Amino acid sequence: MSQPKVSVIVPVYNAQQYLERCLESLVSQTYKELEIILVDDGSSDNSPAICDSWAQKDSRFKVIHKQNAGAGMARNSGIDVATGRYVTFVDADDYIESETVSKCINSMMDNNCHTAAFGSNVVDSKGNTRQRHVTASPLYIGRESVSELLCGMLSYNVGFGMSVWSKVFDLDIIREHCIRFLSEREFYSEDALFVLEYFSYADSVCVLSDNLYYYFENDGSLSRVYNIKREQNLGLFLRKSLETARLNNLSDNVSDAIMVRYQNYLMVTFKYLMSSELKFSDRYRSLHSVYRDPDLQLTLTKNVLSKQKKALRLFYQLISCKLYFLADIILWCKVHL
Question: Which of 120-134, 148-162, 228-242 has the lowest mean pLDDT?
Answer without folding.
Answer: 228-242
